[in-house]
């Protein structure tokens, strides 16, 4: 009974334990806690930490997909990928993709969350309905948009032409001028519902009394938004921005399935470039060097972001 | 400003409707297309012909896309992943939300890192590791990675259910003489049943959708899952849009059906999860 013997003081302390960091932790069922955390930690050690370490090792060898004994080559792969001029493009595109995507998705999600936070008939159905584009497999999303945006017989071109908005059909996914923005929007369409859900979670936490007080004071809708709603959801907007950026940088499937990184490499972001180098050019060492570099960049980015954001905001939302 | 009190709600309702249409119309279009012969679909001057309604695309799925086999493969992978992820996530969630010990914050932080971990980073090393251990080209390789990437996020999704149970309920039960295992079985598990639904839904959807690992780890056609099978249809020299629409509808259907049933718990779970 040692784990449950800590009694009521511990239960009270529980609420405080999350607060001040570094102060002594009052153990509550500590043995059980460690025991229950063990399976997932072992699982992640084997499936993330181990391959991660192995990835760093591969990046220092001349390994390829074909087999053969890899030879240690030091930092040669890093020198190759960083100097052969093939990584700059994908890197910049990844940045544009992630930042553009995060802005579009956060704005769409914030708007959608505000709309869905009202009480109206069918609000539960509406909340579930908008999750559809997130639930459906990426391959279906990719097919759907390739089909609707098709230059020859897609419904979007058909409608735009009959409305007289465009003279001739636009090859949204095949035209180098349009492909990048099109895939960015398709990806936003897929992901913004999930961001909406996260923001909605923060909105439901705003006590109705705040709104009532604001109304009594005669605040306009805009004032209510900027003085009450926004301060409440600001922390979660930061988190959504951070998560959205990091998730976007990792996105591979929607790009690969709509454009394969084309046309003219216009949509070739870092994950696409890594995939091609590893499984089309079979140069695992170089692909791993690119992966490790990307991971380091993400780490630095996340660190700066968390430092930049008001202290406590991210922890409060995520933890 | 006199019109404002009336105009604003109307505006908001219109915007809400627009948003629902932006999400829904593409799917409705896909479903309509799946009931049209390819000859109509690829005719630039015809968008849709009600009189050409046909079930032919669906009828061709089993023979031309080997659809039943890949459907079964996807089901096996998704169910197995879910079966492993639920207990893992459940135990971890209990550990993180209902206990206190040194190192708990670190456990939580590590779970968080996995949410944003780039899967592409693991692709090359896992390919090598799996090929050395004979796991490559088996469903096990996918199941392992589906659990890795869905279980940590499931822990977070269950936060609301675990933190909403009053503190001290375990203590009260313990005073009544219940053992740790009895407390879990009789109190926590029933109380977190919606959390199990949420985890199950998330893992199932994740597994059903997963493309990156499936595209590299599975080599035999007979093992391939739906996303890979569909991609095979997409990348053919000439695309059979009718067949593909039907395949896409059938691929989306199971997760949409699951979400129609469990989605409400999912949405409420996540949104309630934030409110204390």
Provide a quick synopsis of the model:
The complex is a heterodimer of chains A (319) and B (276). Chain A is mostly helical and 319 residues long. Chain A has helices at residues 7-17, 30-58, 76-83, 88-116, 123-129, 132-135, 138-148, 155-162, 179-203, 208-216, 221-250, 253-258, 270-279, 284-308, 313-318.
CATH topology of chain A, by name, is: MetI-like fold
CATH class of chain A: Mainly Alpha
Biggest β-sheet strands, sense, barrel of chain A: none
Tally the helices of chain B: 14
User: Order of helices and strands of chain B, N to C?
Assistant: HHHHHHHHHHHHHH
CATH architecture of chain B: Orthogonal Bundle
Determine the mean pLDDT of chain B: 85
Low-confidence stretches of chain A: 1-22
Q: Please state the structural category of chain A.
A: mainly alpha
CATH class of chain B: Mainly Alpha
Number of helices of chain A: 15
Please report the distance between the alpha carbons of the first and last residues of chain B. Answer: 38 Å
Helical proportion of chain A, percent range: 55-70%
Q: How many independent structural domains of chain A?
A: 1
Strand content of chain A: under 5%
Number of strands of chain A: 0
Average of pLDDT of chain A = 81
Distance between the termini of chain A: 29 Å
Keywords (chain A): Cell membrane, Membrane, Sugar transport, Transmembrane, Transmembrane helix, Transport
Subcellular location (chain A): Cell membrane
Protein name (chain A): ABC transporter membrane-spanning permease-sugar transport
Main location (chain A): membrane
Structure characterization notes:
The complex is a heterodimer of chains A (319) and B (276). Chain A is an all-alpha fold and 319 residues long. Chain A has helices spanning 7-17, 30-58, 76-83, 88-116, 123-129, 132-135, 138-148, 155-162, 179-203, 208-216, 221-250, 253-258, 270-279, 284-308, 313-318. Chain A has one domain (87-318): MetI-like fold, CATH 1.10.3720.10. Chain A has 15 helices and no strands. Chain B contains 14 helices and no strands. Chain B is mainly α and 276 residues long. Chain B has a single domain (65-274), classed as MetI-like (MetI-like fold). Chain A: It is found in: Cell membrane. Chain A: Its main location: membrane. Chain A: This is ABC transporter membrane-spanning permease-sugar transport. Chain A: Residues 1-21 are annotated as: Disordered.
């Amino acid at each position: 009974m040692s784990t449950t013997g800590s009694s009521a003081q511990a239960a009270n302390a529980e609420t405080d334990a999350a607060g001040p960091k570094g102060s002594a932790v009052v153990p509550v069922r500590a043995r059980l806690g460690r025991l229950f955390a063990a399976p997932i930690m072992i699982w992640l050690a084997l499936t993330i930490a181990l391959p991660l370490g192995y990835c760093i090792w591969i990046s220092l060898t001349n390994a390829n997909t074909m087999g053969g004994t890899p030879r240690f080559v030091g930092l040669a792969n890093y020198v190759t990928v960083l100097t052969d001029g093939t990584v700059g493009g994908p890197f910049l595109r990844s940045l544009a993709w992630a930042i553009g995507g995060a802005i579009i998705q956060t704005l769409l999600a914030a708007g959608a969350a505000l709309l869905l936070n009202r009480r109206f008939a069918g609000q539960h159905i509406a909340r579930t309905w908008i999750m559809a584009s997130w639930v459906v497999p990426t391959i279906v999303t990719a097919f759907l948009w390739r089909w609707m945006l098709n230059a020859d017989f897609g419904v979007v071109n058909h409608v735009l032409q009959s409305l007289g908005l465009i003279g001739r059909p636009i090859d949204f996914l095949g035209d180098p001028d349009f492909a990048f923005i099109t895939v960015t929007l398709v990806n936003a369409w897929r992901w913004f519902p999930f961001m909406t859900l996260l923001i909605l979670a923060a909105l439901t936490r705003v006590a109705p009394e705040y709104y009532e007080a604001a109304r009594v004071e005669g605040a306009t809708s805009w004032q209510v938004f900027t003085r009450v709603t926004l301060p409440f959801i600001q922390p979660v907007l930061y988190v959504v921005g951070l998560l959205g950026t990091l998730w976007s940088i990792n996105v591979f499937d929607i790009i690969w399935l709509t454009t394969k990184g084309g046309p003219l490499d216009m949509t070739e972001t870092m994950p696409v470039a890594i995939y091609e180098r590893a499984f089309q050019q079979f140069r695992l060492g170089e692909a791993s060097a690119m992966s490790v570099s990307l991971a380091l960049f993400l780490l630095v980015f996340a660190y700066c972001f968390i430092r930049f954001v008001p202290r406590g905001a991210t922890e409060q939302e995520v933890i | 400003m006199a019109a404002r009190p009336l105009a604003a709600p109307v505006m908001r309702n219109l915007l809400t409707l627009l948003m629902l249409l932006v999400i829904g119309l593409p799917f409705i279009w896909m479903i309509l297309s799946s009931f049209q012969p390819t000859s109509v679909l690829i005719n630039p001057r015809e968008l849709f012909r009600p009189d050409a309604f046909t079930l032919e695309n669906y009828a061709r799925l089993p023979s031309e896309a080997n659809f039943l086999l890949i459907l079964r493969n996807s089901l096996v992978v998704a169910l197995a992943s879910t079966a492993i992820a639920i207990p893992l996530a459940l135990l971890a969630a209990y550990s993180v939300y209902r206990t206190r010990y040194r190192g708990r914050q670190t456990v939580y932080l590590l779970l968080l890192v996995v949410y944003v971990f780039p899967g592409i980073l693991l692709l090359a090393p896992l390919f090598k590791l799996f090929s050395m251990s004979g796991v490559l080209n088996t469903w096990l390789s996918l199941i392992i990675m589906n659990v890795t990437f869905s279980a940590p996020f499931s822990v977070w999704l269950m936060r609301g259910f675990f933190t909403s149970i009053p503190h001290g309920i375990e203590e009260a039960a313990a005073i009544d003489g219940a053992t740790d295992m009895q407390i879990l079985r009789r109190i926590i598990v029933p109380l977190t049943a919606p959390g199990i639904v949420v985890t199950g839904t998330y893992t199932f959807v994740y597994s059903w959708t997963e493309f990156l690992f499936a595209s590299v780890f599975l080599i035999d056609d007979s093992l391939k899952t739906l996303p890979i099978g569909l991609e095979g249809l997409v990348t053919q020299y000439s695309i059979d849009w009718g067949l593909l629409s039907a395949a896409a509808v059938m691929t989306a259907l199971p997760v949409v059906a699951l979400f129609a049933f469990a989605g409400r718990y999912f949405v409420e779970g996540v949104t309630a999860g934030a409110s204390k």
